[in-house]
Amino acid sequence: MDALFRKSDRLLANTSTEIVREIANTIHWNAQLISIIGAKGVGKSTLIKQYIKQKYEPGDRRVLYCSADTVDFSTRTLVELAEEFTVRGGELLAIDEIHKYKSGNTDWSREIKEIYELYPDLKLIVSGSSLLKLKEGDADLSRRAVKYTLAGLSFREALRFYHGLEFEKWTLDDILKHPYDLWQTVSTKCKPNALFKEYLKKGYYPFLLEGEGEYHTKIEQVVNYIIETELPQICKVDVANVRKLQALVAMICSEIPFELNANRIAAALEIGRDTVVEYLKYLGDAKVLNLLYSEKKKIGKLSKPDKVYLENPNIMYALAPTKVEIGTLRETFAVGSLTESHNVEYGKAQGDFLVDSKYTFEIGGRSKDFSQIAGIKDSYIFADDWDMPDGAKLPLWMLGFLY
C-alpha cells in the first residue's frame, strides 16, 4: 500500500494545474461513484489528477490515485485495495483505466459495485475507454454512478488552451439567432479564420501541449491502440480480425468522402456484411468514427450508416494517405462539433445535415450558395473562409463554440 501511495504522489506531483478543462466545474465530485469515459488521449487521467491535486495537500493519505493497467493489481483485487485504503482512513479512491482490470472470473464492475455497497463513505472515481458502458457491466451499478463523457478540445477550448483566449460557450440556437454578436466578441480578440485552420490540423487532443513534433504520430498510435487493444479487450473482437479493422479504417481514409457500401467493403475485406456494420459501430463507439444515418431510417443493430466520417479533423491529417480533402474536412468538423450535444442526421437530397429534426445545414467554402437548400425552412450555410455572418450564411468556426 505504501508503494501505491508513493506512486500516486509522484503522478500527482508531475501534473500541472495551470490549465484545467471547464467540465471540471460541472462534475459533481462529491458523488459516491463517478465514471468518466472518453477516447484515449482526450485528457481523462489529467482531469482526475488535477482535481485531486487542487483539493488535497501533497502526501495526504485520505486520497489515492492509481491505474488498473499496472502490475500493482496483479497481486490484489479492487475490493482488497478498497478495504485496506478505508482501514487507513481513505476517503477518495480514483482508479484510472478501469476497463483494463481483470481478476480471475470477476470483472471490474462487480467489484466496484461491491465496494460501493460495503463502503458507503468512500468516494470512487473510475475512468475508462469510450467503449466502456456501465450498463453492460452491471445495470444496477450504472444507475448508481454519476456518468460524464469527455471529448477532445472544441475550437473554443483550444483558443483558451493554446492562445490564452477566454470565451463563453454558445448554444446552437443562440449562434443561429445572434451570430453577429458571437462574431464581434471573437473577432475583437483574434483572427478566428486563421486560428481555425490551425485547429483543424492540430489542437483537438490536449497532448499538443507536450509538443507539436510528434502530434500526428501520437494520434496514429491512439487509433492503433484502440483497434489493437481496446476493441479485442472490451468488445471481444477476434484478434485475428484486427488487421481487417485497420484495413477498414484505411479504406475510409482513402475514399473520403465516404458513402457506405457495406457489401463492397465486405468483399474487399473477406468478412460478412453484418460484421462490417458491427465493426463500424464499434469504431463509432470508440470515437474513431462518426456514423450518420438518414432521417427516414429506422436504426437497428444491423442497420448500416449512410455516411461515415473520421471522428475529428486531426485524425484526418494523421491518417489520410494523400492530401486531405477540404470539403470532407469541413464536414468532419461540423459533425464532430454538433454530435456532442445534438442529433445529427444525413441530409441526403436536401442539405448536408438535418440537426435535431429541425435545422438543415449545408457546409462549404466561401463560394457556397443556397441553391441546394433554397426554400427549406430553418436552413443555414456554415462556410469556411467566411469573414462574418451574412444573413443565414455563417462562419464555420462558430460551431466550435458549442462546448
Automatic annotation (TrEMBL):
The record ties this protein, via InterPro entries, to: AAA_14, P-loop_NTPase
What positions does the domain AAA occupy? 32-159
Q: Which domain of life is it from?
A: Bacteria
- Tell me what this protein is called: AAA domain-containing protein
